[in-house]
Amino acid sequence: MSRRRKTARIVKSAVPEGMETPCEVVADQLETLAREGAREMLMTTLADEVDAYLGRGRYERGGGFRGYRNGTSPRRLTLGSGTVALDTPRVRDIPPGQTPFESKIIRKYPRRSDTIDETFTNRFVEGLATRDFEPSLRLLMGEQAPLSPSTISRLTRRFKAQYEAFDPRDLSDPRFVYVWADGIYLKAGLGTEKACLLVLIGADMEGRKHLIALREGYRESAASWGERLRDCRARGLNEPACWVADGALGIWAAVNEHGPHSAQQRCTNHKTMNVIDKLPRSERPEYVKRLRAVWQADRESVARKLAAEVVRDLSAAGYERAARCLEDDLDRCLTFYRFPEAHWPHLRTTNVIESPFASVRLRTNAAKRFKKTKSGVYLMHEVMKRLEPRWRRLKSAPLCATVPLPEKKAAKVA
Known about the structure:
By secondary structure, the chain is of the alpha/beta class. It folds into 2 domains: 2-111, no CATH class; 163-407, no CATH class. It has helices at residues 2-13, 22-54, 114-125, 133-141, 149-155, 158-166, 222-234, 249-258, 268-276, 284-295, 300-316, 320-327, 330-333, 344-347, 351-366, 373-387, 406-413; strands at residues 68-79, 82-92, 176-187, 194-204, 209-217, 242-245, 263-266. Strand 4 and strand 5 form a beta hairpin. It is elongated. The N and C termini lie far apart (90 Å).
């Protein structure tokens, strides 16, 4: 008890006039101590660097002449503990041919540590808009910290370089068993129009998923998808065992041209929504269950029988448009039955793309609207590449190596 009372008196006595709670003072003291400790350690290390460069300590003589100390220059550096004021040492009268003194710890021009730069970049990728950096981080970083929107914009220029290295890369390795394709719409450009980003994600022979391509296109037209697939094939993308996409006609026209020997699987989620949209609200819950039962059947023959029953009942109830919608392209919806059963949940839908892009949309929503489509592409690529290492492998991943690829089939025939 006595120790607690003593501590309380010390904290209370440290509270200056006008401060309401001792907790605020303790917190400020801790931050001040942390910054001062960081400053002292940096100043000591800088002094040691000069001593090592000159080969002698301050006020020492002897040894080969390597120059003189020449005072210091004031400088501010933003660290994780805040912004600290430093006096960086200078060296003069360096002999000809000798490398000038330059600190290895504090480089010549940066005003922030590399960790702070990476922290700013991560916060931007995870949803903090440039306009929000200063109000949200000013208290932590200090009044002198460089937190203007232009500072953050300069840091994010690296996204462009990373994307430009990603987009034209060689695609001959690894070889992909399944490839999912989808168009993701992004608020970018002038007016209220949306830009379409054409996305390809593939599963390799070990069941690992990879981002293959991400590029803007003109909606999901056959020309846009055709150009995208032609480019990927030219860079070494193999013809997969199966393409998975929604009902957009553009992607299937492009696949027929650039992957004619691959199987084609249409997303059953999109097919379900297309059918349900043609029914009154009162009928939708029942038919959603029945359609899901079709896709979840344990055999293709059972799925076709259930689908025929749904078509018959829809027609009998007068919902001809819904019945025709289900019949249309039904074969493509049931392609997944040709492949290992463990892979069916992955092949039935385009969730392999939709799921990670749910996280991407959270980030793009924070930006409201991109002035340029390219800016959105760079950011979305950065988010996807950060998510990619955490993507789960396909179920029963070793089975991927047993799925024959079209090119292998052709080689055997030859």
